[in-house]
């Protein structure tokens, strides 16, 4: 296996990655390695991870010269920006370290509570953050399509959001499905907290037309499928996005890194990064 250290003298975005041995972490290491303008500058994982102390790119048969550490200060020391795809409690620990050290943050993690989101909003007074439950261009364009569809189909259409993911996913519904619900609810002047229906069982009664329903499928290695169904009388419209590879999330994350360069504070999402607002 060839292990040539990666020097990239011209690269100017110094990127640390949290959850570096995870599905997204590994995809991000590869995307950074293959990019012309980013360089791996730190690699974080849990103290219990067998990867601690190893080179972060070893799984690619390549040496980045960056060892995986569980110490956020060590992992962030050389970084301008951290990309975090972990779990909410991990992201919040990294957020505190980023705030102390003035390191910007790209958050892909999903499953935050409202209180946890408030902590992120507060930290964005001191550092610049891009946070989005889905970094792919396709999903963010789909969100815009949903906004338009919801406005045009505001009466007479029942709205159901169906998502499918791999067997390892721990949160439900997916962050993307919830975001789709929020976008649709906002377009219709509804509050998702009041109108979301997350489960149905037994004698449910007839469907309340003001609700937005969610269905979750978990199985195998499904990367991520989302469908929004607008079911009317005599017709139905389905808007579907299917991910076949996590590379799209990684590429979107690198676009977020470039967007954050030179920004000192503020909370942004992929609509800002992609100019879709
Ligand atoms: N925004 C987007 O575009 C996308 C978002 N996601 C989200 O990203 C997150 C990660 O997904 P995925 O990569 O599939 O998950 P994985 O479980 O494959 O990876 C998570 C990584 O984070 C580490 N980790 C877990 N808990 C903590 C913690 N408390 N502190 C620090 N590190 C921790 C894990 O370590 P260990 O293995 O040792 O537990 C692992 O290295 C999920 O919330 C998912 O929904 C996923 C894809 C796209
Ligand atoms: O856990 C995943 O895999 C994914 N999570 C994100 C979500 O919860 O929406 C994005 C994508 O669907 C993959």
Automatic annotation (TrEMBL):
Gene3D superfamilies: Dihydrodipicolinate Reductase, domain 2 (3.30.360.10), NAD(P)-binding Rossmann-like Domain (3.40.50.720). Pfam families: DapB_C, DapB_N. It is an enzyme of class 1 (oxidoreductase). It catalyses: (S)-2,3,4,5-tetrahydrodipicolinate + NADP(+) + H2O = (2S,4S)-4-hydroxy-2,3,4,5-tetrahydrodipicolinate + NADPH + H(+); (S)-2,3,4,5-tetrahydrodipicolinate + NAD(+) + H2O = (2S,4S)-4-hydroxy-2,3,4,5-tetrahydrodipicolinate + NADH + H(+). It is found in: Cytoplasm. Its main location: cytoplasm. Its EC number is 1.17.1.8. (S)-2,3,4,5-tetrahydrodipicolinate binds at residues 166, 175-176. Residues 138-274 form the Dihydrodipicolinate reductase C-terminal domain. NAD(+) binds at residues 19-24, 45, 108-110, 132-135. Keywords: Amino-acid biosynthesis, Cytoplasm, Diaminopimelate biosynthesis, Lysine biosynthesis, NAD, NADP, Oxidoreductase. Pathway: Amino-acid biosynthesis; L-lysine biosynthesis via DAP pathway; (S)-tetrahydrodipicolinate from L-aspartate: step 4/4. Signal peptide: none annotated. InterPro entries: DapB_C, DapB_N, DapB_N_CS, DHDPR_bac, NAD(P)-bd_dom_sf. One of its GO terms (biological process) is lysine biosynthetic process via diaminopimelate. Residues 14-135 form the Dihydrodipicolinate reductase N-terminal domain. One of its GO terms (molecular function) is NADP binding. The active site is at residues 165, 169. One of its GO terms (cellular component) is cytosol. HAMAP family: DapB (MF_00102). Belongs to the DapB family. Homotetramer. Catalyzes the conversion of 4-hydroxy-tetrahydrodipicolinate (HTPA) to tetrahydrodipicolinate. This is 4-hydroxy-tetrahydrodipicolinate reductase. It comes from Ramlibacter rhizophilus. The gene is dapB.
């Amino acid at each position: 296996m060839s292990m040539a250290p990666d020097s990239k003298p011209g690269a100017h975005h110094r990127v640390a990655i949290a959850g570096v041995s995870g599905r997204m972490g590994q995809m991000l290491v590869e995307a950074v390695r293959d990019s012309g303008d980013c360089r791996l500058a730190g690699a974080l994982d849990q103290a219990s991870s067998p990867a601690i102390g190893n080179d972060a790119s070893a799984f690619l048969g390549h040496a980045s010269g960056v060892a995986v550490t569980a110490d956020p200060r060590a992992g962030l020391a050389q970084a301008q920006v951290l990309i975090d795809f972990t779990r909410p409690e991990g992201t919040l620990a990294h957020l505190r370290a980023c705030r102390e050290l003035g390191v910007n943050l790209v958050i892909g993690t999903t499953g935050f509570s409202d209180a946890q989101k408030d902590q992120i909003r507060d930290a964005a007074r001191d550092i610049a953050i891009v946070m989005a439950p889905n970094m792919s261009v396709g999903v963010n364009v789909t969100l815009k399509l949903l906004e338009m569809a919801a406005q045009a189909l505001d009466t007479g259409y029942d709205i159901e959001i169906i998502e499918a993911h791999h067997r390892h996913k721990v949160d439900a519904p997916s962050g993307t499905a919830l975001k789709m619900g929020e976008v649709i609810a906002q377009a219709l002047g509804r509050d998702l907290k009041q109108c979301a229906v997350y489960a149905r069982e037994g004698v449910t009664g007839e469907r309340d037309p003001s609700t937005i329903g969610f269905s979750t499928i978990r199985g195998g290695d499904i990367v991520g499928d989302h469908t929004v169904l607008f079911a009317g009388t005599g017709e139905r419209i389905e808007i579907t996005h299917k991910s076949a590879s996590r590379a799209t999330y990684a590429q979107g994350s690198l676009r977020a890194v470039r967007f954050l360069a030179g920004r000192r504070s503020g909370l942004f999402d992929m609509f800002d990064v992609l100019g879709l607002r």
